[in-house]
Specification:
Elements lengths: L1 E6 L5 H13 L4 E6 L6 H14 L6 E5 L4 H8 L4 E6 L1 H12 L25 H22 L5 E7 L10 H20 L2 E6 L2 E6 L2
Parallel strand pairs: 1-5, 1-6, 2-3, 2-4, 4-5
Antiparallel strand pairs: 6-7
């Protein structure tokens, strides 16, 4: 079963996802936490540490896996009956994929879930390299979406809803917003359950 949890920054979506996991561990499921963030600067390392500290007393015996790029392969390996997997989050995975596929990122700061729409692509990047990067991401996304129906057990996917704000400056920033929206739509179409979290309150989108 696939459960997609959407929300903005500090909406409470991660906490809601962890609460879902707790319901399954109460039934005897074992729990895996898949983190897609990369601690590429001190600020991000601090945020990751806060998330880790918050999980130490949440009553769940997590098996932690850190994977910034090869998410599809990891989920195929981990998913099985009697196991619930929490992925936090898809939008950071998208960010990692776009940057890894870009021909030139140089000294640009690593974007995070909380300010992913603030980064910009170098003006020296060519349209050819951008097309190749986009094609690489589309292949990754297709493989990921296609794999969801095959996963056994329960998978809770956390993702940002980033399309409700202003249109960001910068080509890669706008591409991120577009691709995040399309990724969420593709996953939501296949998910058994979709929940939107706003201000700590959950709203069931699917099933109605």
């Amino acid at each position: 079963m696939i459960h997609l949890v959407l929300g903005g920054a500090r909406s409470g979506k991660s906490r809601y996802g962890e609460a879902l996991v707790r319901q399954y561990t109460a039934l005897g499921f074992d729990a895996c936490y898949v983190a897609t963030a990369q601690a590429l600067d001190d600020e991000m390392a601090t945020r990751i540490a806060k998330h880790q500290a918050g999980r130490t007393d949440d009553g769940i015996e997590w098996q932690l896996f850190e994977e910034s790029l090869a998410l599809t392969a990891l989920l195929k390996r981990l998913a099985k009956p009697g196991r619930v997997i929490l992925v936090d989050c898809l939008t950071l995975w998208l960010t990692n994929q776009l940057l890894a596929s870009s021909a030139k990122i140089d000294d640009e700061p690593a974007p995070t879930e909380w300010h992913a729409t603030d980064f910009a692509v170098s003006t020296s990047a060519t349209s050819t390299s951008n097309d190749e990067a986009l094609a690489s991401w589309q292949a990754e996304k297709s493989a990921f979406v296609d794999s969801l129906a095959e996963l056994e057990g329960v998978v809770v996917l956390i993702s940002n809803e980033v399309g409700s704000g202003i249109v960001p400056l910068g080509e890669l920033s706008r591409q991120f917003v577009d691709e995040a929206g399309w990724l969420n739509q593709a996953v939501a179409a296949l998910a058994d359950n979709v929940t939107l979290v706003v201000a700590g309150l959950s709203l069931a989108l699917k099933p109605l």
